[in-house]
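User: Teach me something about this protein's shape.
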Amino acid sequence: MPNKWHGQTIRVGLGSYAFRYAVGFSGFQPPQPMKLNDFLAAAAELGYEGVQLCENLRYSGHPRDSLLAAAEQARELGLFVELGMRDLGGETLRRHLEIAEVFGSRLIRLVLGAESAFPEKQPQRMKESAVKILTNALGELRDLDVIVGLENHFDLASDDLLSIVEEVGDSRVGLILDTTNGLGFLEKPEVTLAKFIPHLVSIHLKDYQIRKVEAGYFVTGTALGEGLLDVKGILRNVLGTRRPLSIIVELTTRRTDDLTDILAWEADMNYRSMNSLRQMIREMEA
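Assistant: First, the predicted structure itself:
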């Protein structure tokens, strides 16, 4: 992976949701779910420089010795490690700060709500709670040199997330752009990026397709570079900030009923995404 763009260092990592089927979830359980150590090895084999460990890996419940072993594995593989959590609470955040210290993580990606595919019914209440918890945590964030990045998801609209960050008013709390999640609010990624860019700390790079189906439209993910996302345009805007942002590749592709080997299909999607990103960065540098 090229790690320079016009002299600027590019930090590119793999998010654990790139292997949502290999890891497993309530709607799909593989015979042998991918574990934390497997994911670290897969990211290194694909050529990534780092990883973002999200809640699908269920790592926050691991004992300390298991986390220390994973941190050592990441160091041996030369991977930077970022963390991901959802459902903000004081104790939950504190637990992830403990884990950040183990891994030497400098970024915690945060989804404010719990498991929900729909907008928050009481957005003002969620916003007020988030501002209070994050403001109270600023001292710990400074002490540990950690940044919390709020990701646009399906709970709050981008304007709500922006208002939280502006009310907290500290560089230790920023924003993470997910390039497909805003579609749930009928907001294109370029629009969300324009709002987020003053406070941007990371980006989740995912491509998508929109197809006309009977009586509506079908929106789904695809391998990077094979959909509608203007990947180069997004990258130019992000890298143009000249800030040390991480670029995290994920997948939001949906299996089809006729797939006989879902895990091989997912692995191939990851391989194609990595090759496409590598080629696009080279072309941008030329």
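Now, about its shape. The chain has a mean pLDDT of 93. The two ends are 15 Å apart (CA to CA). If you'd like, I can walk through any region in more detail.
User: That's plenty for now, thanks!
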